[in-house]
User: Fold this.
Amino acid sequence: MIDAKLLIAVWASLVTAGSSYASTKWLLPYLHARAAAVEKAPVALRKLPQMTVPILARGELQGYVVAKVSIETDPKALEDKSFFEAFAIDEAFRTIYGEAGINFEKLQNSDLSKLKADIRRNINARMNADVGRDVLFEEFTYIARNYVAR
Assistant:
């Protein structure tokens, strides 16, 4: 007579194999469609030159932010926008300079996320198109006024 434990093990193996096969068959078309969409979306990375932004609070210089920013863009959307880099530099500078709600001495991850989203939104608004997909900080350093050589 066949042992009951052996039957349970065989049954569990068959159920596992069957469910794996079914889930793979069900997900495969979705995964292929998603991979094709990602491959078709061209991406260009525009590196902006390093910028030094003064940080003012209560009418006094508090320090400087040294930032090197890159913008992930759609190259097709930028074909007729040769002035993108100048506007991107200006908007990044203005956004960092005008950000009164961030304490650069005690910078948090959420502050950087907000800053990146604001820069992206401002660039897209200035260009009147959705050209900036993401903003990347290659370098972001705050230097307090006390540490700046005179």
